[in-house]
């Protein structure tokens, strides 16, 4: 509520009739830090003034916390409290005058320190609830490689896993393969989960076993995924069969329509 009072005070400086909508929600942003955000909106009925405030907790651990309280007016940052500095900072001429008084107010500064402590208290909840490990979903398949000297390329993909670190290893008859192997980095999905793809260019021999070994924090031991050439062939047969069936159905329907049109267009002539 402290930040809300500051924002209202700022709008009153604009000589406008102001009203506000106040809501709290949590978001999480994972790069090197986690972000908790509390937001409220402020708007004025006159001249379409719009403002909003952000209360942010930035942290990488319980001992590394930065608390920020920010007020924006018409998309411009006006004032900010930074727990690292321990004071308010104004970013416009008008707000620089205001923060001089705010920094002399011990009650406001003490309240901001309490807000930082609340942020610190909620950190374990965020880590426990929102940072649970997620086991990867793995697919191993043979794809075409027109630009390569090899007729095909194996692709091992791991989807929707957390935490980020994962290791994919190619095995040929149980032995690790390191040549003709390329891999992407762990790619973010945008929902805090990751995916990765590894490629192996090789000419498989009859009876040869090609495997993708996956190591991740969610797995008690490495997990092996074997390529089954019969399943690939079976899928191709099914696809060809379905295509043939659909093509035959089209010919049957076309013939039926043609026959119906010819029979309905005939005119019966009576004979004497």
TrEMBL record:
Gene3D superfamilies: Class II Histocompatibility Antigen, M Beta Chain, Chain B, domain 1 (3.10.320.10), Immunoglobulins (2.60.40.10). It comes from the Eukaryota. Residues 1-19 form the signal peptide. InterPro entries: Ig-like_dom, Ig-like_dom_sf, Ig-like_fold, Ig_C1-set, MHC/Immunoglobulin, MHC_I/II-like_Ag-recog, MHC_II_a/b_N, MHC_II_b_N. PROSITE patterns: IG_LIKE. The keyword Coiled coil applies. The chain crosses the membrane at residues 238-259. GO terms for cellular component: MHC class II protein complex. Its main location: membrane. Keywords: Coiled coil, Disulfide bond, Glycoprotein, Membrane, Signal, Transmembrane, Transmembrane helix. It is found in: Membrane. SUPFAM superfamilies: Immunoglobulin (SSF48726), MHC antigen-recognition domain (SSF54452). The keyword Transmembrane helix applies. SMART domains: IGc1 (SM00407), MHC_II_beta (SM00921). It holds the Pfam family C1-set. One of its GO terms (biological process) is immune response. It is a single-pass type I membrane protein. Residues 136-216 form the Ig-like domain. Residues 92-119 form a coiled coil. This is Ig-like domain-containing protein. The gene is LOC116331354.
């Amino acid at each position: 509520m402290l930040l809300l009072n500051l924002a209202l005070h700022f709008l009153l400086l604009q000589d406008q009739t102001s009203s506000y909508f106040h809501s709290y929600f949590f978001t999480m942003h994972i790069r090197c830090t986690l972000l908790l955000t509390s937001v409220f909106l402020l708007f004025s009925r006159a001249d379409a003034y719009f403002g909003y405030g952000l209360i942010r907790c930035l942290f990488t651990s319980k001992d590394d916390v930065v608390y920020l309280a920010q007020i924006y007016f018409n998309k411009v940052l006006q004032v900010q409290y930074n727990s690292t500095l321990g004071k308010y900072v104004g970013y416009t001429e008008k707000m620089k005058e205001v923060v001089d008084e705010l920094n002399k107010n011990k009650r406001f500064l003490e309240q901001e320190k309490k807000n930082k402590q609340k942020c610190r208290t909620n950190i374990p909840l965020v880590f426990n609830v929102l940072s649970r490990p997620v086991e990867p979903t793995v697919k191993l398949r043979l794809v075409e490689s027109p630009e390569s000297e090899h007729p095909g390329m194996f692709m091992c993909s791991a989807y929707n896993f957390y935490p980020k670190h994962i290791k994919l290893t190619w095995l040929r008859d149980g032995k690790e393969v390191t040549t003709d192997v390329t891999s992407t980095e762990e790619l973010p999905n945008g929902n805090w989960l990751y995916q990765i793809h590894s490629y192996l260019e090789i000419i498989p021999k009859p009876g040869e076993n090609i495997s993708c070994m996956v190591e991740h924090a969610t797995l008690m031991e490495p997990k092996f995924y074997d390529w089954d050439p019969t399943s690939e062939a079976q899928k191709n047969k099914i696809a060809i069969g379905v295509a043939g069936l659909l093509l035959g159905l089209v010919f049957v329907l076309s013939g039926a329509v043609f026959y119906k049109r010819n029979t309905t267009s005939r005119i019966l002539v009576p004979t004497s």
